[in-house]
């Protein structure tokens, strides 16, 4: 594992993924839960999806970081 490249996912991105995909909240509900606008929530979620996709395609590790 230590030889893998790392993709860093923020705690905020991780929470957005959890709310949308595990709790099955609509974006409006998830944004409210995170105390942010729906458009900001969408940007956070989009960023998280891109990072996870890159990690899967390129065989990289995912590290959750505090920002």
Summary keywords:
single chain; 67 residues; alpha+beta; Arc Repressor Mutant, subunit A; two-stranded parallel ribbon
How would you portray this structure in words?
By secondary structure, the protein is of the alpha+beta class. It has a single domain (10-62), classed as Orthogonal Bundle (Arc Repressor Mutant, subunit A). It has 3 helices and 2 strands, in the order βαααβ. The chain has helices at 11-22, 27-33, 38-58, and strands spanning 6-10, 61-65. A two-stranded parallel ribbon has the order 1-2. α2 crosses α3. The radius of gyration is 13 Å and the shape is elongated. The protein starts with 5 loop residues before the first strand and ends with a strand. The model has no long low-confidence stretch (mean pLDDT 95).
Brief account:
The chain has three helices and two strands; from the N terminus they run E-H-H-H-E. With 67 residues, the protein is an alpha+beta fold.
CATH topology: Arc Repressor Mutant, subunit A
Q: Main β-sheet, in a few words?
A: 2 strands, parallel
SSE pattern, N- to C-terminal? EHHHE
CATH architecture: Orthogonal Bundle
Task: Report the oligomer.
Answer: single chain
User: How far apart, in Å, are the first and last alpha carbons?
Assistant: 23 Å
Side-by-side strand order of the widest sheet: 1-2
Strand percentage lies at 5-15%
Quick one: how many beta strands? 2
Radius of gyration: 13 Å
Helix share bin: 55-70%
């Amino acid at each position: 594992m230590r030889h893998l490249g790392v993709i860093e996912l923020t705690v905020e991105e991780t929470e957005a993924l959890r709310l949308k995909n595990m709790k099955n909240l609509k974006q409006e509900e998830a944004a409210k839960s995170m105390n942010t606008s729906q458009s900001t929530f969408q940007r956070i979620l989009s960023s998280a999806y891109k990072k996870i996709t890159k990690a899967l395609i390129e065989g990289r590790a995912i590290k959750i970081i505090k920002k």
